[in-house]
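We treat protein structure as text, and this decision shapes the records that our systems exchange. Such a record has a labelled line for the sequence and another for the backbone structure tokens. The record that follows is passed on verbatim for readers who wish to inspect the format:
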Amino acid sequence: MVHKIAVINGDGIGPEVMREGIKVLRAVAEVTPGLKFDFTEFPYGAEHYLKTKELVPEEGLKKLSKMDAIYLGALGDPRVPTGLLEQGVLLKLRFYFEQYINLRPIKLYPGVPCPLKGKGPEHINFHVVRENTEDFYVAVGGRAKEKSKAQHEVTRSIYRAKFGLDIDVDHDEIAYQIGVVSRKGSERVIRYAFELAKRKGKNRVTSVDKANVLTHIYTLWREVFEKVAKEYPGIETEFAFVDAITMWFIKNPEWYQVVVTPNMFGDIITDLGAMLQGGLGMAPGGNINPEGVSMFEPIHGSAPKHAGKNVANPIATILAGQMMLEHLGEQKAADVVEQAVIEVLREGKTRTYDLGGKSSTSEVGDAVATKVKEG
């Protein structure tokens, strides 16, 4: 079967790690009967924006919609205002294709150092399912600065009526951001988490929120979680406040199996999870629409100071490709790629600087591709 894959190399180290991810995918296609890829590159990122002032045009979205999946390198460039590429490319793609699941496996592989004393691969192996299109990422908000007494009184009355707040903004400036959680959005991501637990043979799902303080939106989240959980009587459930779960990730990571969380909290705790598994260079992620076009990427940034040096760790990108294979129904090929990564890491001969080695980006990619071909 030919899978049409859109490739967005992105910025900084993006093209370098993406090169190795594609190298491994080509290698697994060589040894998997019937598996083929048709890669199409799309230019979106800093260079394209600086030349054209264009982020992702409507025509580009239409072309991307005809792909089976999107493979993304990294986004971010100091020459571009902070957040412009992230919102104009990454978030735009997530929202346009309704990739409402952000799936993050937190898995420590053999041979990878863990910052937690006494913890090994047998202790760190769980998934975080993050809602990906709601919460505080819906871009509802603004800023206000009053210049006259009349403006001050109008704005103050609006905040009192709309939010029940008596905010004095006279001669000052305020900023506000509104989080939005819907019943539909909560239910579909929570249900995905339970189905993932069933598929992976897990028997516990942990729900994350901050319902003790942010009561309006996260009590709705809790209600939906409790309702969906009743449909899965064989799976144990629990609630955890986001501040508490960061503590327990450190103290008892082995407890967790599947964690489901609203958007912003998931954004935060998955970076902590990346450190548990050896760093951002080991952490892949998937932006998933189970019925549409999904996008797979390393969760690290573009690391512009390392760009062009051939030193960045490509494992996260390679594992993002492995997640893409699994999503496309190519489980056997996905298993071959993961096993090749495990063997390279276990041997410890080829590893980049972040894992205590001296190997280059391309050398790590070569090593994994070779293991894939060896079977």
Summary: The two ends are 20 Å apart (CA to CA). The CA atoms of residues 112 and 355 lie 7 Å apart. Residues 114-134+181-277 form a domain with the Rossmann fold fold (CATH 3.40.50). The chain has three domains: 1-100+289-375, 114-134+181-277, 143-177.
